[in-house]
Specification:
The chain is built from 13 helices and 14 strands. It is an alpha+beta fold and about 425 residues long. It has three domains: about 1-165, no CATH class; about 170-295, Alpha-Beta Plaits (2-Layer Sandwich), CATH 3.30.70; about 300-405, Alpha-Beta Plaits (2-Layer Sandwich). The strands form two sheets. Strands 5, 6, 7, 8, 9, 10, 11, 12, 13 and 14 form a ten-stranded mixed sheet that branches. Strands 2-1-3-4 form a four-stranded mixed sheet. Helix 1 crosses helix 4 (about 45-55), helix 5 (about 75-85) crosses helix 7 and helix 8 runs antiparallel to helix 9. The protein is elongated. The N and C termini lie far apart (about 70 Å).
Length: about 425
């Protein structure tokens, strides 16, 4: 403590009573804040008291201070207001922010410039800290500077409180057991989601989606305002997603409740009879969204292929062997050209095997690099994908059905 006193006295003497006296008279707190970087575990009013004693400085009363204007005298009132505003939102952590009149900031910065001090801290920093300590003491909740559940912004001029509620993220895997369901809500093309005769007023192209089926069981629990779905890729609407399922994260915006019964949600989704199942639901961090969206992992497909003409078993095996491990070039498929850039994509067919066959059809197991258009690998898409099964067999091929049966590099055709 003696070392702190000596350092603070030295810093005060460096500014000098004459220079300080030429500035508007500050309260003891604002005076101490000029030396906030001197010492630790000491409050700014305590610093200000030492400086006043060293320089023979008589501080102004808080309500007469040209910088803070006595705002800290209202700290308890502000604390109570913040607690009331946060009360409807379940949370275990918070972060305090504030807005001050620009004139306050300008006055403070003017003093810094005139005194050429480098040991100060802004009034907002002290206010946020002191209000945060008061809220934490009264509620037992802790301040979190990285990922708070609730961020509070208090306007000290108009005495308004704005809240930013952190989203809840739920991660798991989904299985889509039926065809004809999109992964996410698909707005009606005619009305762009507003509702029209074509969509029967629903605003949707499809009655439901994987996202909506899962969200319907979690939104009421969280009492959230909106939901957003983040999947590790997506399967076609007419494809099933089988095996261990596809990883996803459901983001719930503005949740009033954060502690959700995920086991109950799993049971409700799986028992709904809507063709979607979920497993492994757990809370996730917001950073996992980027991880799941950027994951580049191989997929395994079961493809039901129909031939226009008889194909000999030997020929089929020969072509499948030729495609196994091949590098293909895929121009943007015609079926998605309206929403994807027209460009050539180079993809690798990791593995291809015949699981079953008859003269005019076959069931293929295909492991391919992420982003591979499997239907076009079979059909050729009018030459936009080369090489392709149809071209090498010399007969027209069509995909009758397609299932995604595994996601992950370690889950290839030899399962």
């Amino acid at each position: 403590m003696a070392a702190f006193g000596d350092e603070l006295r030295g810093a005060a003497m460096a500014i000098g009573s004459e220079s300080l006296g030429q500035q508007p008279r500050l309260c003891v707190r604002c005076l101490g804040r000029l030396f906030a970087k001197v010492g630790k575990g000491v409050s700014n009013p305590e610093r200000g008291a030492v400086v006043s004693d060293v320089l023979g400085y008589e501080p102004a009363k808080p309500d007469a201070c040209p910088v803070c204007k006595g705002v800290f005298d209202s700290l308890i009132r502000f604390r109570d207001r913040v607690i009331r505003e946060m009360e409807p939102w379940e949370h275990s952590s918070f972060l305090i922010g504030s807005r001050f009149d620009p004139a306050v900031v300008e006055a403070e910065e003017g003093v810094w410039a005139a005194l050429r001090t480098d040991k100060h801290e802004p009034i907002k920093m002290e206010f946020n800290r002191e209000l945060g300590k008061a809220v934490a003491l009264a509620t037992g909740k802790e301040a979190n500077f990285e990922h708070p559940d609730v961020t509070v912004v208090l306007d000290t001029t108009y005495e308004t409180v704005d809240l930013q509620i952190a989203a809840v993220f739920i991660r798991g895997n989904y299985r889509k057991l039926v065809r004809g369901i999109p992964q996410t809500r698909w707005p009606c093309k005619a009305c762009m989601g507003k509702g029209c005769r074509r969509c029967g007023g629903t605003g949707k192209m499809y009655q439901t989606s994987v996202e909506e089926i899962i969200a319907a069981k979690l939104m009421p629990q969280a009492n959230a305002s909106a939901h957003f779905f983040h999947g590790m890729g997506r399967e076609d609407i007419d494809a099933r997603m089988l095996g261990d399922g596809r990883p996803f994260i459901l983001e719930l915006r503005d949740p009033h409740r954060r502690a959700l019964d995920l086991q109950r949600a799993e049971m409700e989704v799986n028992g709904s009879g809507e063709g979607v199942e979920v497993t492994g639901l757990r809370p996730a961090a917001s950073t996992e969204v980027a991880e799941i969206k950027n994951e580049r992992t191989d997929k395994v497909y079961r493809v039901f292929v129909k031939f226009d003409a008889e194909v000999a078993e030997e020929k089929l095996n020969e072509v499948v062997s030729a495609l196994r491990g091949s590098r293909i070039v895929q121009q943007t498929p015609t079926r998605v050209a309206h929403r994807r850039a027209d460009m050539a994509r180079h993809r690798i067919v990791r593995d291809m095997r015949v699981e079953g066959r008859d003269g005019k059809g076959a069931v293929l197991l295909v492991t391919a690099e992420t982003g591979t258009y499997i239907k076009e690998l079979v059909t050729g898409d009018g030459g936009r994908t080369t090489p392709n099964l149809s071209e090498l067999l010399g007969v027209r091929c069509a995909v009758e059905a397609l299932d995604v049966i595994a996601i992950g590099a370690d889950k290839g055709c030899e399962q």
